[in-house]
Amino acid sequence: MNAAWHRRHPMPPKATTEQRIAWHLQHAKQCGCREIPPTLAALMRKKKKKKG
Ligand SMILES: [Zn+2]
User: Fold this and answer.
1) DSSP string, 1-52
2) Distance between CA atoms of 36 and 10, rounded to whole angstroms?
3) Which residues of the chain have pLDDT under 70?
4) Ion ligand 1 — residues with CB under 5 Å?
5) Residue 29 C-alpha to ligand 1 middle, in angstroms?
6) pTM (2 decimals)?
7) Ligand 1 centre and the CA of 47: distance in Å?
């Protein structure tokens, strides 16, 4: 676990969906101690569809 990254990137207590997605994307790159929640992954896919 990348503890230094976690110290520098605390999840905001009232994080919006956008913030949670951004946090997890960075987290997956920098650490990956836990997986992206399926509900959030589904939201990510939805957003991608919208854009493309
Ligand atoms: Zn982590």
Assistant:
1) --HHHHHHSPPPTT--HHHHHHHHHHHHHH--SSPPPHHHHHHHHHHHHHH-
2) 16
3) 50-52
4) 31, 33
5) 10
6) 0.84
7) 23
